[in-house]
Design brief:
The chain is of the alpha/beta class. Helices cover 31% and strands 17% of the residues. It has an 8-stranded parallel beta barrel, surrounded by 7 helices. A 5-stranded parallel beta sheet has the order 15-14-13-16-27, with helices on one face. A hairpin with a 2-residue loop joins β22 (595-600) and β23. It starts with 10 loop residues before the first strand and ends with a helix. NADP nicotinamide-adenine-dinucleotide phosphate (NAP) is lined by residues 469, 471, 500-508, 561-563, 571-572, 623-626, 654-656.
Length: 671
Amino acid sequence: MSTYPHLLAPLDLGHVTLPNRVLMGSMHTGLEETGDWARVAEFYATRARGGVALIVTGGMAPNAEGGVFPGAAGLFSAQDIANHRQVTDAVHAAGGRIAMQILHAGRYAYGKECVSASAVKSPISPFVPRELDEAGIEKQIADIVTAASRAQEAGYDGVEIMGSEGYFLNQFLVRHVNKRTDRWGGDYANRMRLPVEVVRRVRAAVGPKFILIYRISLIDLVPDGSSWDEVVLLARAIEAAGASLLNTGIGWHEARVPTIATSVPRAAFTWLTGRLRPEVSIPVITSNRINTPDVAEGILAGGQADMVSMARPFLADPEFVAKAAAGKAAQIAPCIACNQACLDHTFSGKLTSCLVNPRACAETELRYAPTATPKRVAIVGAGAAGMMCAIVAAQRGHSVTLFEASGQIGGLLNLAKVVPGKEEFRGLVDWFGVMLAEAGVDLRLNTRASAPDLAGFDEVVVATGVSPRDPGIAGQDAAHVLGYEAVLTGAPVGKRVAIVGAGGIGFDVAEFLVHQGDSPTEDLALWKREWGVGDPAEVPGGLAAAGPQPEAPARAVTLLQRKAEKPGRRLGKTTGWIHRAALQMKNVQMRGGVSYDAVVPEGMQISTAEGPELLAVDTVVMCAGQVPNRALADALAAAGITAHVIGGADVAAELDAKRAIDQGARLGAAF
Ligand code: NAP
Ligand code: SF4
């Protein structure tokens, strides 16, 4: 019997039977806006070949005013329908099924034409929406229905109507956005009229043999959100209006509670789907922070959902389902929920990809084709860049030897693993280990390769990483000064700490030092308390009445930087606020515009615009950035051996795993 009997069980939807319980959730990739429809088609077809039962596309705008941003893609013309036909044909040829998400952003639309129930601006948008009149509401419904009909014409197997995350339909449900007194506002029966009417009319337009998913917000995580009773009322009405499936939505975009970041516990919100399931007769889909077949199987076996939605995990590994079914779950590239190459890209106007899989959204451009001319490849350094290069090159048929001076693979990823909230990095390092073995890489641990050792290889790759930058502060040799590596590997640290440098590592070290005991990421009750997540059955919207209740900090930490800007400003676009909020909850003092005068026996002497100041601390931790380890690269150059230099050894500034892995993969694909 399979290890995942529930995950791989078919699901009968009446007119169609899905082969398993896995849905690829909607993600905006930016691919549609490139106009390269062969590329869009290949992105989805690759996922269909990997065995996912049903794909949901990124959100398509039903009209100009409802687009997330000006020019957002939608089915507006015969050409658009023909373009989408390429996608559906490719998915069907690959044996898959695909539904198109219809996303009306309402007041979240980034444009002055945006519309909503009432003229109430969102805290995350500069635009005040126009309050729709009766005709305006009818137009929005008609446009959504037209989008669904066109999706059917384009060959889609269904549509998902986006009714959660604080978008248009969700906005009508709550009193703080919907201040209307007509039949679309007032009591709940009126406020839920719009989503129910949309579903009813879409079903009437598309007929019974078309999948209709409604994404319902189970917990808004904003003040005055929906109550649980209202959620259930809506779910039942949506079912009666003709939905085939209910998908779970969690949190409005303006919520100040993380819902998908790596520090959110796995399956943190599935308890809500489990509570909804007995209230309706149609299948329910759960979502958010589910990234392994084991977690998904546990949810389904426990009766908390009928299907599991995963979105980002299908960027990380399109073959998620096929590998699980083949007993190769350890080979599934894990989504670590970092957002670095997906959502951070989306919100920076860049095409989506994936930190662990640079081929995501680049399927037609970055190919790992078998080589016709196998070579002997030496790679020095088993950090992120070196490991990825080794795996890709070996998979393509090259003979790869990977030298690592230390006794373990992983490089700096091993430091991330110990930071509370970054436990997903453990799985990432494990995956690299599995894939190095699977690809047949000759891994030489505890082996420091020098130039003569590398002379006989056809290709030499230097991936020797970085060393901590020496900030050159007077008195820094004192016993109470530690490097970040020593701290993260267990060196004793005092109760009052100053951290020099507020980059990614400074923030990680601060997080590490203020925690004690269990990581909230591995303890759902603790995490919910820390972020103030309550129960929508008790408080509408589900924010705990008592607010966030973080554990007391383990230490008093001051995080310092020289730049006179808000520390953490350069962290990830969609996750930086979480890191800053997490440290603020632990009373970490974050200070910019500091100059370091000297480390002194009493602590650290600094100067700010207000003058000199003594920070009375018992430990100073250096997190002042990195410099490349180029000794081997220089020695090879001196010996006349041509080498490729990648990762931190190439450019240390702003190094992150995304760049290292991308560079490694592209070189491994190029030999
Ligand atoms: P970093 O982000 O470049 O930050 C280095 C810090 O050191 C800055 O705060 C910088 O601020 C300070 N600094 C630079 N030169 C200094 C000097 N000579 N003396 C004193 N301070 C100095 O580097 P990192 O923190 O080592 O992180 C490395 C990379 O790992 C990051 O770029 C990041 O991408 C990645 N990472 C990311 C995350 C994440 O959350 N996404 C977490 C960990 C690591 P001032 O120059 O203003 O003082
Ligand atoms: Fe997951 Fe990070 Fe890849 Fe996004 S970039 S899919 S969050 S691993």
